[in-house]
Design brief:
403 residues; 5-stranded antiparallel sheet; 5-stranded mixed sheet
């Protein structure tokens, strides 16, 4: 009897063990299947809840599936919402991942580019290489400009970028706008200002020449003293020389030679500039300091042209009554060289701040008005910028950026 009990107990134990192993194996297979399905974003499955042994477990798995399905539906709704929102903005937006693959492109981007679909930057490179290069090279926090020509029109784009992480990989978000109309308006305004200044300068010079010539013609043979004739002719000659000087200034502004670039240390350039202007600055009681961070900053530029900019800046500061000029240079986050030239001279008036880069605009009696305009032209040829960043009773600062 005891033997039968032991055999029965052993059989029951074996059954329980095998049942446990089978249930565990089935459980693992179900969990593995569910995880594989969810990883593939597949929710079209459901475990049966009719059988008693695994009813509770299957119900739990189905509940997890339902939660995931709900979250996925909410994410899709959010994506649709943000997609519609981005399709209604007036800025082209393109998301570029590794391999120049386009992860997202809004309707405005397609409209500006004149494309039905946009899946890779290589598409753009075949039709507009310069714009494709701008999309690829534009760095975060910087702006690039590039043109886009189609059969219908020619546009100029302002392009900016930022970086982000999308599904575990780094992407670049490129935003661009058509600024053609803004450029045209600015060009029209610039031409209007330029014509106004040219007219003013030429009329100021030509008017006394015409007046004196007419007066001398009327006095011919009337016994006018020789000294008066000589004085009138000298005045005409002086005015003519001023007009020739003005024309030469215009010529130098419109015929800037192509920069002959080479690498040199910024400190080397400053030493040369201070050697050239040192006596003039000392005579005006001006001291000049220079600091750079890090040391030994290297510029790749036309040393002669950049020296011309610095000489002009230092002379302007001395003429503004400055006693101290401070030059500082640094690298920004994009590794562009940023140079601040500051002085404590008389500030530039608010009205003049908007005009100082206009050719021939000057507030000095003997100024030509081309120094700052020429400096900006040179910086553009070096893919850089120059701008007035501050001017008040404490300090006036011009900032040069070499990209």
């Amino acid at each position: 009897m005891t033997g039968w009990i032991l055999i029965t107990a052993g059989a029951v134990l074996c059954t329980l063990v095998f049942s446990g192993i089978y249930f565990t194996s089935m459980t693992r297979r179900k969990v593995s299947y569910m995880l594989d399905a969810l990883e593939d974003k597949e929710t079209n499955f459901r475990f049966r809840e009719e059988k008693w042994p695994d009813r509770k477990f299957n119900r739990t798995l189905n509940r997890i599936r339902g939660i995931f399905e709900k979250e996925q539906a909410e994410i899709l709704e959010q994506e649709k919402y943000f997609g519609k929102m981005l399709d209604n903005v007036q800025t082209g937006i393109v998301v570029i991942s590794e391999g120049e693959r386009i992860e997202y492109c809004n309707k405005k981007a397609l409209s500006l580019l004149g494309m039905a679909t946009f899946s890779t930057v290589r598409q753009l490179r075949r039709t507009n290489p310069s714009l494709a290069e701008a999309f690829t090279l534009v760095a975060e926090g910087h702006e690039k400009k590039a043109g886009c020509t189609s059969e219908a029109s020619t546009m100029t784009f302002s392009i900016t970028a930022s970086s982000a992480e999308l599904r575990g990989k780094r992407v670049k978000i490129v935003a661009f706008n058509d600024i053609s109309s803004d450029i045209e308006e600015n060009e029209t305004a610039s031409w209007a200002r330029l014509i106004r200044v040219l007219t003013h300068e030429i009329m100021n010079t030509v008017t006394p020449i015409a007046s004196l010539s007419e007066a001398l013609a009327k006095k011919e043979g009337s016994g006018m003293p020789e000294s008066a004739v000589k004085s009138g002719l000298e005045t005409i000659a002086t005015s003519s020389r001023s007009l020739i000087k003005f024309v030469n200034s215009y010529r130098s502004l419109t015929h800037i030679p192509t920069p002959e670039k080479r690498a040199f240390y910024l400190r080397e350039l400053l030493d040369n500039v201070l050697n050239l202007t040192g006596k003039e600055l000392s005579a005006s009681g001006v001291t000049c300091t220079f600091r750079e961070d890090p040391e030994d900053l290297l510029l790749y530029a036309d040393m002669g042209q950049i020296s011309q900019i610095f000489i002009n800046m230092l002379k302007n500061a001395a003429q503004a009554g400055a006693s101290k000029i401070d030059i500082s240079a640094r690298l920004d986050k994009a590794e562009s060289i940023v140079i601040d030239i500051s002085n404590n001279g008389s500030p530039i008036s608010r009205e003049s701040q908007e005009e100082i880069f206009v050719p021939f605009y000057t507030t000095k009696p003997s100024g030509t008005g081309i120094g700052l305009s020429l400096s900006r032209q040179i910086m553009r040829l070096h893919n850089g910028t120059i701008r007035l960043t501050r001017s008040d009773d404490a300090v006036t600062t011009f900032t040069l950026i070499f990209r």
